[in-house]
Amino acid sequence: MNKKGILVGIVILLVIISVITVYSSSSVETENLDVMPPGMISTAMGSSVLGNPSAQITIVEFGDYQCHQCYNWFHDTKSTVFQNYVDTGKVNFVFMDLAFLGLDSPKAAQASYCAEDQGKYWEYHNQLYTAQESQIDNGWANSERLKAFAFSLGLDMELFDSCFDSGKYTKRVQYNIAEAKKLGANGTPTFFIVGPDGQQQKLVGAQPYSVFKQVLDSMI
Amino acid sequence: MVQTLNLVFSNHFYIVLSVVIFTFMLIGLLILSEYVFLDPYIIGHISQGTEFGFVLIVILSILSALVIPMNIYRINILKKSKGKMSGSVFSSFIGSIAGACSCGPIGFVVVSTFGSVGATTLAFLTSFELPIRIGAIALLAFTYYATVKSLKIECEVR
Questions:
Q1: Is the pLDDT of residue A28 over 60?
Q2: What are the phi and psi torsion angles at B36 (to 5°)?
């Protein structure tokens, strides 16, 4: 490799970084859904609605139980958003699965719906985000652990095992993933904040509370 | 060491190159690693527990901005081999891609395009983000040390 080759290598490195950077930002900018008509997000296959069902604003989160950024949002920001908007009845919240990070991700999502069958979806959801480990598919969310989480929540294990082992909610999770793709959500967490007049704001990543506050206040 | 740095960065070209590399790497990695968000508002945010990752990105960017221009200088001025150059570029690249994929759009594209192979690679890069970045920094630090040493000797000989 000559001198020219080295310089070309440097340029290629910089170009790769710029392309990645531009891709990352443009994918956000080009998919601003402010103009999307109301009712475009089908949350029927997602979680139950958390908070005031008749709230004018809905936050829809697309997440993966193995995603560390979802973990960060869950532990850093979610409680403040809930305290100020969901618990006060101004906003409600729906979680949908974009389970793509590892082999255990769809299984964890399916397990959450098996817990929902016994009325403990949100407890199970919280349990998964509390127990998440930094390594993907390292066994923290394998079938045995998912069953152990259910056991620790006091679920009927016969019912849970039957639901989980039969793959009852495989298609439900697949539907949610397809819905995420349809909406242009290509990373986790991705939030769609749907306002009273149907306007939607997409937030990509574990954005801080201040961003949610600005967006939500502008819609209230 | 200071003499060597003065020698290389007395030429404005290398200062500009260094600033460009530092800026591109720092901003690019901060965006990819979700320390900086561009939409709907430009905002920086360091989540609890991710401070160490942030520091590693800054160190990686600084070292890359020092080592790469020094090696280009070494090749340009002293017509030396490119061994160290390749090492520094490789370290910067590996350090950059570690964890940059993670849960974001890049990771999603990797999994969608390459299927299970992509998912395995993504899982590895995400899971071992910090050790890979530390390894890349160690390699860059070693390259920096070796470059400074060889520049000192080579320049004294000349």
A1: no
A2: -125, 135
Tokens for B77? 């001025």
Q: Are strands A190-194 and A200-204 parallel, antiparallel or unpaired?
A: antiparallel
Range of the domain at B57: 2-97+140-157
Do the Cβ atoms of B102 and A67 come within 8 Å? yes
Of A13, A206, A215, the CB nearest to B47: A206
- Partner residue opposite A28 with nearest CB, options B38, B102, B103: B38
Please identify which residue in the block is written with the tokens 């923290």.
Answer: A140
Task: For A1-22, write each residue's pLDDT tens digit.
Answer: 455 555 556 555 555 655 554 4
Q: Which residues of B97-111 are buried (b: 16+ CB within 10 A; e: fewer)?
A: bbbbbbbbbbbbbbb
Looking at the domain assignment, is residue B70 inside a domain?
Answer: yes
pLDDT value, residue A189: 94
Whether B18 contacts A179, CB under 8 Å: no
CB A31 within 8 A of CB A184: yes
Q: Bridge-partner residues for A58, per DSSP?
A: A92, A194
In chain B, how many domains are there?
Answer: 1
Three-state SS for A117? coil
Give the number of C-alpha atoms closer than 13 A to the C-alpha of residue A33, restricted to the C-beta side.
Answer: 23
pLDDT band at A69 (very low <50, low <70, confident <90, very high): very high
pLDDT at site B58 = 94
Tell me what percent of the residues of chain B surpass a pLDDT of 70: 87
Chain pair A-B, CB pairs under 8 angstroms: 136
* A residues 115-154 closer than 8 Å to B (CB): 134-138
The mean pLDDT value for A189-195 works out to: 95
